[in-house]
Amino acid sequence: MKLATWNVNSLAVRLPQLLDWLAVQQPEVLVLQETKLTDDKFPHAAITAAGWHSVWFGQKTYNGVALLSRSEPIDVVRNLPGFDDPQARVIAATVDGVRVIGAYFPNGQAPGTDKFAYKMAWLDALQAFVAAELARHPRLVLMGDYNIAPEDRDVFDPVAWAGQIHCTDEERAHFRALCGLGLVDAFRLFEQPVKSWSWWDYRNLAFRKNQGLRIDHILVSEALKPQVAACLIDKLPRKNERPSDHAPVLVELTG
DNA sequence: ATGACTCCCAGTGGGAGA
Predict the structure, then answer these.
(1) Whose CB is within 7 A of strand B?
(2) Is A104 a known active-site residue?
(3) What pLDDT, in 10s, does the model give residues A74-97?
(4) In chain A, what percentage of residues exceed pLDDT 90?
């Protein structure tokens, strides 16, 4: 069973690339972030025609998430229950007995700003939600654009980025707290190439120079950990014309 | 170097992203 996450940075722009990628990779489940579409504009028909179920939760201009799956998704949850939020950032569903939470974590802009405070409050609410979901669904995957680089080895220039957004102690503590609920970073279960990133700035020829961050993650529960056979970042879509600034991350579960 | 690029909504520029 292959599951994946991809921040597409506008599904309206990236739909052809998404359909191409689905045809090649054939994931059982894919969660999307930054669809930037109101629900009435979600390209449901094209995705259905390609052979995937889809559920979605979006808004105008910013944010927006979706979950695509080969099997029908059930028990769909949109956003964090009890956390009143005008921003569309979370979609969860059960697919083939696996609870999948897809999330677009807030950017946070910079420490000390209102947006950073929002990120911290959102992370508190996410942690409570994941804990409750784990209690009901031991077989669980939390994946998406975390906007957190967990360790210095996830940053191309850790000295320049020290204390900057995505790399602050507060954000990294939240990442570790999520792991403390009984989740593990699937990517780090395997030997990986050094300088593995999931995002590269559009500016400065960053992709060509491989200057990026690893901020898109797949965390799996302890119950699923023995089934994790592989986890990788697919850099190919970043080489497309008009690419998203993020690459998809995939995990393969046996059985 | 408070930049660089891309997307969006707007409207002939500006905010946000990371």
Answers:
(1) A 7, 9-10, 12-13, 34, 36, 60-62, 106-107, 109-110, 115, 145, 147, 165-166, 199, 201-204, 213, 215, 242, 245-246
(2) yes
(3) 999 999 999 999 999 999 999 999
(4) 100
Residue A223: strand, helix, or coil: coil
pTM higher than 0.85? yes
CA proximity to A94, closest of A64, A125, A63, A53:
A53
Q: Which nucleotide is nearest to A7 (CA to C1')?
A: B17
DSSP string, A15-83: HHHHHHHHHHH--SEEEEE-----GGG--HHHHHHHT-EEEEE--SSS--EEEEESSPPEEEEES-TT-
Q: CA A214 to CA A196: how far, in whole Å?
A: 7
Residue A112 structure tokens: 């000390």
Which residue's entry shows tokens 């609920």?
Answer: A181
Residue type, A23: A
Structure tokens at A237: 């879509």
